[in-house]
Amino acid sequence: MPDLLLEFFSEEIPARMQARAAEDLKKLVTDRLVNAGLTYEGATAFATPRRLALAVAGIPVRQPDVKEERKGPRIDANEKAIAGFLKAAGLASVEQAKIEKDPKKGDFYVAVIEKAGRPAIDVIGEIVPEVTTAFPWPKAMRWGEASARPGALNWVRPLHSIIATFGPETEEPEIVKFEVGGVASSDITHGHRFLAPDAIKVKRFDDYMAKLEKAKVVVDPARRAQMILTDAKNLAFAQGFELIEDEGLLAEAAGLVEWPVVLMGSFDAAFLSIPEEVIRATIRNNQKCFVVRDLNTSKLVNKFILVSNIEATDGGKAIVAGNERVIRARLSDAKFFYETDLKTRLEDRLPKFEHIVFHEKLGTQAERINRMIALAGHLAPIVNADVALAERAAWLCKADLQTEVVGEFPEVQGLMGRYYAEAQGEDEAVAHAIEDHYKPKGPDDLVPAEPVSIAVALADKIDILTGFWAIDEKPTGSKDPYALRRAALGVIRLVLDNNVRMPLLPVFAKARSDADGRDLLSFFADRLKVQLREQGARHDLVDAVFALAGQDDLVLIVRRIEALAKFLETDDGKNLLAGVKRATNILRIEEKKDKLEYTEAPDGAMLQQAEEKELAAAIGVAKLEADLAIVREDFAAAMTAMAKLRPRVDAFFDKVTVNVDDVALRANRLRLLNEIRVTTRAVADFSKIEG
Question: Is pTM beyond 0.90 here?
Fold first, then answer.
């Protein structure tokens, strides 16, 4: 079957837009193909700094024929209704419609509309211009004389040519004819701007890729990135260095070049007195270059690796020299900022926060810091941290936001606070807590393990969460402008990774008495579900444990969930779950019907059959054993106690009829079922468990 090749060749496409643009092009074109009845075998999209390309394989030669039956009015309907039906169906007269009989509703007209499929190339010729004119660039422009006319094409940068070819591998492909914004489709593109700018005629995707490669253009961004990474590693290793890898920078560098050429430059060793992270941020942010470290000492060296877009005749000497000049100037600025920052103590920067609003409803940054100090002091004993050190770290942890270096490079906030704290002689625990209090920032970030760091990191995140809950600014749908989901996941990881025994509700109340702690706890339950699901746990077990009153100790909740999961993998667990759910369902139905709850203890004197007497006795034993096990926090033992109920529950449902005519006996047996529900709730709410 035929394949489609598209390429939009333009001026520079910003690196940050390329990946999204490739995905948008793929989705927009393939969705329209499918909607038009043209299914396909596969599609691949690519982007370079100058081109956006799409290959769609296995498209049918033409659309399928369509046969549709459209129901019309009854044959005795008025003329106006019949005329409207004929017009809508494209029929000249009622003789062209067929009549279907319906014994109940009467006879009615039916139009049989047959629509022949169109050639795929014609359909594609309509689809591509639609996609082009409506393409969702974050920022687009118009250019030339046509830009003043209504409906002028908007593209990320001036568009020079469009390739659109369609045809099977065994034949010469055709050009899909259309014009957009004065640019006519063709089979012509151009190679590398400087190394091979001549026009290139292409046929299909493999031919396109091969010819562009010869013309010094690597179309696939993943391959460009791999070329850069491999060459950079080899260049560094050859001189006894190791590349400091950076996925984000690698992707950006690959988006800046069509023919990557890796070179090495250097800077004055005197700049190594600046913290390594500042050097790296300076070189990365300003010149999109990589830094390297010594293989033996792992310390940064005064070298950098850049990625050029050309093979220079001088071997890249002028390119390297130009980058060295810029980096020297930027590092000079960074060194000045760093040395200037060291002249002012962190605490002397804090008064400025009194005039900086954190949030209009939550006060100034200074007020937030004071809340964090109080909360860190409260949490310190819980996490075995020194109270005074935790409070001091909370007091100083935001101060580096007022420094020159962090103003220039926000990504080093916290880290620079640690450097400045160490320079002014702060306790090492305070210095590290200043750096760590933002952590963990994501699922792959390390979790602080030092007690003072834990206290301050928890205080930072819990203050944010309770504050925004107090003013009812919660995440909605996909919107989370204050990163509250990330903050909650951070609290969860801090607590679980460090085995912190900390009931959440009292801590929420301590942080903000006006926050809805219960609602916030429910939010934590949802986040915990996400975390545990990623680790392979069942979300319904989280619901089953959180449903119990007073469950706000995350460590105990996870232990309960783990024990419950293991129990439910056993035959006893599965069968007991079925029995409990049966008892719960009967109770729910009967309580709703009777408009009352059977929560009183059953009357032992009214137990008639051996099976109900044995169940009542087993419940008493299981409840006692489970309660004692839970006091010891031995949830596996609690599950074992529950398992003893299984044969008695099975026997009860086999031999005992609950809904008997005797009203008093029926009520007593319903109360016995409630005892099953109450007893098993010692470990979890089984009604929340699926299965």
Answer: no
